[in-house]
Specification:
By secondary structure, the chain is α/β, with parallel strands linked by helices. It folds into 2 domains: 4-333, Spore Coat Polysaccharide Biosynthesis Protein SpsA, Chain A, CATH 3.90.550; 357-455, Hexapeptide repeat proteins (UDP N-Acetylglucosamine Acyltransferase, domain 1, 3 Solenoid), CATH 2.160.10. The chain contains 14 helices and 30 strands. A 7-stranded mixed sheet has the order 5-4-1-6-12-8-13, with helices on both faces. It has a 6-stranded parallel sheet with strand order 15-18-21-24-27-30. The longest helix has 21 residues, at 332-352. Pfam families: LbH_EIF2B. Residues 457-472 have a biased composition (Polar residues).
């Protein structure tokens, strides 16, 4: 695939209190948080390797880029060694056509506060052809070739293709799922005209107005529109190079590009991309405010297709089939489900091979235990991921839980469906059910808690349980949210002046 891939690494505000933004001791960027004891960004890189992109670019804030680069050092070294070992085997056969060198990975530090600015101010000069924007937090069994094929088969007047998926998490009310939306798209059964994204409305705004305000402009142009409350934004955007021309501020450069396209068309048609001479709608440049998240930028691009009198280019929408699995670890609930997805794969692989774990009576085949862990006798671990350097005492029962690195769990502790941050401590004879524990938090002995978010108040070293801690982070103002959740949909204003009167 001759595509440039850009992976955006956020700060993980919606993963609070596992990722805490208020304490200086926080040491793990969101991109390095483990899913099945592997940093989540490694799954994205593996997915990109399957796609065989032209290059992979990891985009993160200045204060985190070096830490992410260092955290991936071992993975990248192993990636090179695997290629060397594979090349030695394949060079002795006739199947060298399957041999590809590892894709070049670039690390890009950013000083912008949101992804819209990152794209327009820092990444556009680097983009030389079609490209794809990705989050750092998804795991899926969808082959990248499927998305690429749909991208190639887009309508001629599509600027980009946005990928959506159905919410596969049933117990969404147990943890904070983030803001939810009404997604409006054209549902075309005719293959000659594919579905396009039209608009997105916040459920909160719809609740305030007590009805969904669908614009007449849109219904006139797309009378077959469909509204869905189950679709989630994957933050995967396949973009044509025309989008660069649209977002670029330098008009003179754009005129030069147009003239060079015309000249090249006269000289050699093979040098021109098909979309350049098949486009039905002329590329009309409108002012696009990019000082916002990419979710809003693509919402504005989608609105262009119907809010103007003259037709504009559209944004295609591709909805992943329900038979596939797709999880984004951008909040606590989906973080837990993404881990369970990986654990199920591990259990199935052991089952198919007829293997059992060497300590099956204590650690189930559906569980993962990191390095340098100490687990004492009569402890039972099922459907859980235990990070590196954990110390687990006697007669503990851990079921369906995610334990990050260097956690201490004392004797006779029961954990069911919990997430525990790094360096936390669960004292003796405690029982936690459906709880989230902040890193470095100490749970007192004999605690019995259910459905709690355990975190410390800022500036106070005393232990304190606060069920509202996650809400205070999730409901922060828009500026704080945009510095983190580049790809987690934000609240869309009901009417921000984009519509023609």
């Amino acid at each position: 695939m001759n595509l440039q891939a850009f992976i955006f690494c956020g700060k993980g505000n919606h993963l609070s209190p596992i990722v805490d933004q208020h304490f200086e001791h926080r040491s793990t960027p969101k991109a390095l948080l483990p899913i099945g004891n592997r940093p989540m960004i490694e799954y994205v890189i593996d997915w990109c390797d399957q796609a065989n992109f032209k290059e992979i670019n990891i985009v993160a804030q200045v204060d985190e880029i070096e830490q992410i680069k260092e955290g991936l050092t071992t993975f990248l070294e192993l990636r090179e060694k695997q290629f060397e070992a594979l090349s030695k085997v394949l060079t002795q056969s006739y199947h060298t056509n399957h041999l590809h060198k590892p894709i070049v990975i670039n690390f890009i530090s950013s000083k912008c506060n949101n992804t819209g600015e990152k794209l327009t101010k820092e990444l556009l000069p680097r983009i030389t052809n079609d490209f794809v924007l990705l989050p750092c937090d998804f795991v899926t069994d969808v082959p990248p070739q499927i998305l690429y094929d749909h991208f190639l088969n887009m309508d001629d007047n599509n600027l980009a293709m946005s990928v959506y998926y159905n919410n596969q998490i049933e117990n969404s009310d147990r943890r904070h799922m983030g803001k939810q939306f009404f997604t409006v798209y054209s549902n075309n059964d005719d293959l000659s005209e594919r579905s396009v994204l039209l608009d997105i409305y916040s459920k909160e705004n719809v609740a305030k107005t007590k009805y969904l305000q669908i614009r007449n402009h849109m219904l006139w142009r797309y009378p077959n529109a469909t509204v869905s409350t189950k679709l989630l934004n994957s933050f995967i955007y396949y973009c044509s190079y025309d989008l660069v021309k649209l977002l670029r501020d330098d008009k003179s450069t754009d005129r030069n590009d147009n003239s060079s396209d015309e000249e090249s068309m006269e000289i050699d048609l093979t040098e021109i991309k098909p979309s350049y001479f098949k486009r039905k709608n002329k590329l009309i440049k409108d002012t696009i405010n990019s000082n916002k998240s990419l979710a809003k930028v693509f919402r504005d691009l989608a609105r262009r297709s119907w809010q103007h009198e003259e037709k504009r280019s559209t944004v295609a929408i591709f909805i992943l089939p329900e038979v596939t699995s797709f999880y984004r670890a951008n909040n606590l609930n989906s973080f837990m489900e993404a881990n369970r997805f990986i654990l199920k794969i591990k259990a199935q692989s052991f089952s198919k091979q007829g293997k059992t774990a060497p300590t099956a009576s204590v650690i189930g085949i559906d569980s993962i235990v990191g390095q340098d862990c100490t687990i004492l006798e009569k402890t039972n671990i099922k459907m859980s991921a235990i990070g590196d350097g954990c110390k687990i005492g006697k007669r503990c029962r851990i079921v369906g839980s995610i334990i990050l690195s260097n956690v201490t769990i004392e004797d006779d502790v029961t954990l069911e469906n919990v997430i525990i941050g790094e360096h936390a401590k669960i004292s003796i004879k405690s029982k936690l059910t459906n709880c989230d524990v902040e890193e470095h938090y100490v749970v007192p002995s004999r605690s019995v808690l259910k459905g709690e978010v355990l975190s410390r108040s800022e500036g106070n070293s005393d232990v304190e349980a606060s069920s509202n801690a996650a809400e205070s982070t999730t409901d922060d103002d828009e500026t704080d949210e945009e510095t983190d959740e580049y790809y987690d949909d934000e609240e869309f204003d009901d009417d921000d002046g984009l519509f023609e009167r």
